[in-house]
Specification:
By secondary structure, the chain is of the alpha+beta class. It has helices spanning 52-60, 62-70, 87-99, 104-121, 124-134, 139-147, 149-164, 187-201; strands at residues 32-34, 41-47, 75-81, 173-176, 179-181. A hairpin with a 2-residue loop joins β4 and β5. The model is unreliable at 1-7 and 12-24 (pLDDT under 50).
């Protein structure tokens, strides 16, 4: 971490609860969505911008899921933000993604694609700043975004709700039509889960 971590000094880091299941998944403030609102299958993804496992899944599996299911109206993806160490990097990534109008998922995808290179550089906030510039933000706009108290409160609130109300402990965590998915995270396993959920609903 460098001096830019001070911009995120308002972040709360809470202890994870013991339970891991979420019994009910109603729409929540701050949800980011892809896909048709009336899709028969709702696929809820809890992930962290700082999680290497999330980055791997997002960049290798999600593109196929999106092409086969989300873009065809069969599945609606509901993305919910979670913080994992380094929490400041995850929070900054989410704040950055929300700051670029209409390109949340594009920015988040870029963060996941460059995550390892940024870690290797050991210049975490400079790496995010470079992504911000790629999407048209100036250095001041990037710094202002990370220092925005409303944005900081939002990411804190979403993180606290995921842990304390939905009982999420780790990332990635998936739910398919409200039931926690504990199977294979690869395309084949998810395809079977989506088909079963759609058949059950039908």
């Amino acid at each position: 971490m460098d001096r830019r971590a001070l911009l995120l000094s308002g972040l709360a880091v809470a202890a994870a609860p013991e339970l891991a299941r979420a019994a009910h998944l109603p729409p929540l403030p701050g949800d980011m969505v892809l896909g048709a609102p009336k899709a028969p299958v709702q696929f809820v993804v809890y992930a962290s911008a700082s999680c290497p496992h999330c980055a791997h899944w997002w960049t290798t599996v999600l593109p196929s899921v999106r092409k086969a299911f989300i873009d065809t109206g069969k599945v609606r993806l509901v993305f919910r933000e979670f913080l994992t160490p380094p929490n400041e990097f995850a929070a900054a990534g989410f704040i950055l993604a929300r700051r670029v109008p209409g390109k949340y998922f594009e920015v988040l995808t870029t963060i996941f694609e460059k995550q390892q290179a940024i870690y290797d550089s050991e210049h975490l906030f400079e790496g995010l700043e470079a992504i911000g510039k790629q999407y048209g933000l100036t250095e001041k706009q990037f710094s202002d975004a990370l220092a925005d108290p409303v944005a900081l409160k939002g990411v804190n609130d979403r993180f606290a709700r995921a842990m304390n109300e939905q009982n999420i402990e780790h990332t990635p965590t998936f739910f398919v039509n409200g039931a926690e998915y504990l199977g294979d995270f690869e395309f084949a396993g998810l395809s079977k889960a989506f088909a079963a959920a759609a058949a059950k609903k039908g």
